[in-house]
């Protein structure tokens, strides 16, 4: 297939593209920069110039492809609600180009959408639109596309990591560095699910190859790593003390991240593994955090 990939030069997209090429697909990668375009050409992909802020450029890219993987997202979490709305518009633009065909569109969401009421891990069978995570806008857009007959599936992400980036933990580390203490909420028993970036990329590849309309896949290797365990490794890496904070102090201490840091986001991937034959094999989250070079460079969000 000729697959249009948004976010093709990003953290996850730059792992998706080589996997697609190695599997015999052609890739048309979205790029907003000359540097991104050069990288795509170097690895053997074609380039489509455009941005998330220009929906027409997204529709034009999708119209040139047999399938679409939408992995792009604006990761400025301090402007998270607006960026989720931007993602909804992007999905609508991509879907519009595919309407009336059976060409698959794989979009991205977060595992929080699979949390039902209670404390069970998020499930692929659940779509909880009452969950406070603004990322629900992405799945709402996907549901609207499904109703129009578009072949949409969704990959839900946990904390995606290697030794450079770890999802929300990346800005968490910078806040800890600035504050001079590694804090967590309460006893630190809330959990975050996780996956290595290469394993996440494999889920996208398998999802677009299966092209199963309405499917929800969880790219989850570890169902839940406790906030306390994460904090302990980060404290060791930064050489800073640990501190427990009451929930009411989280917003003042963490700023914009206060809404996330105490969330309990465990997730199962049992169905995904069965549907896709997916067996994650990358390093786990704590190993990657322990292997980071904390002193040698600042960690970029």
Could you explain the architecture of this structure?
About 40% of the residues lie in helices and about 20% in strands. It has helices at about 15-20, 35-45, 55-65, 80-100, 135-145, 170-180, 195-210, 225-240, 250-255, 260, 270-275, 285-290, and strands spanning about 1-5, 25-30, 45-50, 65-70, 105-110, 150-155, 160, 180-185, 190-195, 215-220, 220-225, 240-245. Strands 3-2-1-4-5-6-10 form a seven-stranded parallel beta sheet, sandwiched between helices. The protein has a three-stranded mixed beta sheet with strand order 7-9-11. β4 (about 65-70), α4 (about 80-100) and β5 (about 105-110) form a beta-alpha-beta unit. It is globular and about 55 Å long. About 50% of the residues are buried.
How many helices? The count is 12
The main β sheet shows up as: 7 strands, parallel
Shape summary:
globular
Q: Based on helices, strands and strand pairing, what is the structural class? A: alpha/beta
Helix content: 25-40%
SSE series:
EHEHEHEHEHEEHEEHEEHEHHHH
Mean pLDDT: 94
Low-pLDDT stretches are: none
Strand order of the largest sheet: 3-2-1-4-5-6-10
Q: How many E strands? A: 12
- The Cα radius of gyration reads 19 Å
Give the percentage of residues in beta strands. Answer: 15-25%
The first-to-last residue Cα distance is 33 Å
Task: Kindly report the oligomeric state of this protein.
Answer: single chain
């Amino acid at each position: 297939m000729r697959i249009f990939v948004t976010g093709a030069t990003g953290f996850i997209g730059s792992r998706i593209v080589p996997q697609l090429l190695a599997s015999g697909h052609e890739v048309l990668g979205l790029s907003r920069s000359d540097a991104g375009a050069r990288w795509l050409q170097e690895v053997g992909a074609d380039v489509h110039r455009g941005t998330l802020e220009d929906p027409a450029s997204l529709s034009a890219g999708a119209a040139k492809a047999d399938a679409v993987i939408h992995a792009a997202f604006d990761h400025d979490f301090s402007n998270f609600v607006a960026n989720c709305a931007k993602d909804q518009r992007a999905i609508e633009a991509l879907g519009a180009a595919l309407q009336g065909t059976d060409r698959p569109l794989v979009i991205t969401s977060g595992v929080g959408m699979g949390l039902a009421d209670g404390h069970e891990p998020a499930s692929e069978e659940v779509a909880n639109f009452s969950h406070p995570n603004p990322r629900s806008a992405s799945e709402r857009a996907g549901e609207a596309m499904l109703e129009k007959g578009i072949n949409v599936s969704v990959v839900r992400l946990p904390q995606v990591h290697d030794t450079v980036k770890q999802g929300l933990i990346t800005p968490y580390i910078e806040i800890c560095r600035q504050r001079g203490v590694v804090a967590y909420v309460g006893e630190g028993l809330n959990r975050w699910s996780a996956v290595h970036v290469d394993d996440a990329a494999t889920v996208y590849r398998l999802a677009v190859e299966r092209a199963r309309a309405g499917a929800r896949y969880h790219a989850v290797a570890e169902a839940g790593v406790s906030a306390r365990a994460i904090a302990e490794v980060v404290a060791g890496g930064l050489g800073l003390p640990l501190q427990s904070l009451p929930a009411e102090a989280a917003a003042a201490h963490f700023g914009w991240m206060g809404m996330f840091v105490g969330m309990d986001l465990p997730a199962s991937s049992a169905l995904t593994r069965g549907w896709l034959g997916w067996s994650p094999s990358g390093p786990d989250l704590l190993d990657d955090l322990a292997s980071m070079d904390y002193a040698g460079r600042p960690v970029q969000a």
